Amino acid sequence: MAAYSDIINQLKQKTVYQYHAIQRQAILNLVRTTEGCVPWRLVGEAYDEEQMLPRHRRTNDRGALGLLYFHKFSLRYLFQAYSQAAENAAVMEEYLNTLPGSIAGYYNFYGALLHLAIMIPI
């Protein structure tokens, strides 16, 4: 994915680059989780939500906000932070119409699993 990031950056596709960076960081968080790491915090080599979130809000980049909240939602679900995932799901609903239909499908899938996890604790 790093090679694709470089190519996208060389082509000066800033919006695509930012969207790709969000997804790349989410994947890095999944495969490189370490002790003491907060896997749903998208801060690392590909993307820094602490720097970019204010920029996305300021420019009203709803696509980036939707992707960011989706990945935070799915990572929180996958790492069993269910109450935080539920909070993220509520925020993300506002941005569903800015995302591809495939992500809406994943949102519904994870949302259903989240409801089950909350209702039937293991």
From TrEMBL:
GO molecular function, one term: kinase activity
UniProt KW keywords: Kinase, Transferase
Domain of life (superkingdom): Bacteria
Name recorded for this polypeptide: Serine/threonine kinase with two-component sensor domain
